[in-house]
Write a structure and sequence with these properties.
Layout lengths: L4 H20 L5 H66 L4 H26 L4 H18 L1 H16 L7 E4 L2 E8 L3 E5 L5 E5 H5 L4 E2 L5 E10 L5 H14 L10 E7 L4 E10 L3 H19 L16
Antiparallel strand pairs: 1-2, 1-5, 2-3, 3-4, 6-8, 7-8
Subcellular location: Cell membrane
Pfam families: MS_channel_2nd (PF00924), MS_channel_3rd (PF21082)
GO molecular function: mechanosensitive monoatomic ion channel activity
């Protein structure tokens, strides 16, 4: 309130002068006198007002401009510094032979901590004291903790995935009705790429709380195909064709033999089973290739692949 004393003083002086003039002047020229006096006082008031405003607000504006400049320097400089630190940590962990999944997780943690520290520095730069900052962080922590209970569960799930290693980046996993190749294991979510190149994001808490099938954990898979032939077809020849196709497939694992057997005597077909061990990365290509080759080979050998038929007989009454 002290800063406005000059204005109050001028107002009281102006009021007293005008009142005195009004009492003393009883002549017709009194209105002109009052107008002149009022003009002089307003001019003085304007001059003092601009001077006071300049002396009072220019330092404040300069201070805020300086703080804004410091904030920008700290933000852009801090961001570059955080990226550099994360890169150095990643290289150090890589030299120690740490897996890609673990390296990325720790780099994400370091990146998050770096931005939190930079935020604290920025808040102090704009004028928040350490006590105010501590109270702000505490209250924000409680609010965020209550609002992000599910996210904290997902974060814990991410830590468990890294420790237990049910899968790593590059594995092909199946979870419920979702399957794909693991692209990224983050702090909260895991990203999968499907066979048709779609991106699927699954919360880590969901992965930990449910069953997961890691298809590529052992590096090879058993390809299983079922083929039906007619009862009049040559069973021995059909088995020889299947064995030959399985052994000649480029994705076959030579350490495991090809297995062909009669799996079922169905109503209209003899169903043969074909088991071939192939590389996990070539599973689908091998399956599609063998399915096509079996059809073409059976056609060349005259082996019938039966299909359902309905016989209709008409009896004359």
């Amino acid at each position: 309130m002290k800063s406005f004393n000059w204005f109050n003083d001028l107002s009281s002086i102006l009021t007293q002068d005008l009142a005195t003039a009004a009492v003393e002047e009883t002549e017709p020229e009194s209105m002109e006198f009052l107008a002149n006096e009022l003009g002089d006082k307003v001019e003085k008031l304007s001059q003092i007002s601009w001077k006071e405003m300049f002396e009072r607000y220019v330092p404040v504006v300069c201070d805020y401009l300086l703080r804004i400049a410091l904030v920008l320097v700290i933000f852009f400089g801090g961001r570059k510094l955080i990226k550099k630190i994360v890169s150095l940590c990643d290289q150090a962990l890589k030299r120690h032979g740490m897996e890609v999944t673990v390296r990325r997780f720790f780099c994400n943690v370091i990146n998050a901590l770096g931005y939190i520290c930079m935020l604290g520095i920025l808040l102090q730069t704009v004028g928040l004291t350490a006590t105010s900052l501590t109270a702000l962080v505490a209250s924000a922590g409680v609010a965020v903790g209550l609002a992000l209970q599910g996210s904290l569960s997902n974060f814990a799930g991410g830590v468990l995935i890294l420790l237990m290693k049910p899968f790593v980046i590059g594995d092909y996993i199946v979870q419920g009705n979702t399957e794909g190749t693991v692209k990224e294991i983050g702090l909260v979510y895991t990203e999968l790429i499907t066979a048709d190149n779609r991106l699927i994001v699954i919360p880590n808490g969901t992965l930990i709380d449910s069953s997961i099938v890691n298809v590529t954990a052992t590096g090879k898979r058993r390809l299983e195909l079922s083929v039906g032939i007619g009862y009049k077809s040559d069973l021995k020849k059909a088995k020889e064709v299947l064995i030959r196709l399985g052994e000649n497939d480029p994705a076959r694992d030579p350490e495991n033999p090809v297995n062909v057997f009669v799996s079922e005597l169905a109503e209209s077909s003899v169903n043969l089973g074909l088991h071939v061990w192939v590389s996990s990365s070539e599973y689908w290509n091998a399956k599609w290739r063998l399915t096509e080759n079996i059809k073409m080979a059976f056609d060349e050998e005259g082996i019938e692949i039966p299909f359902k038929q309905v016989e209709i007989s008409v009896t004359k009454m």
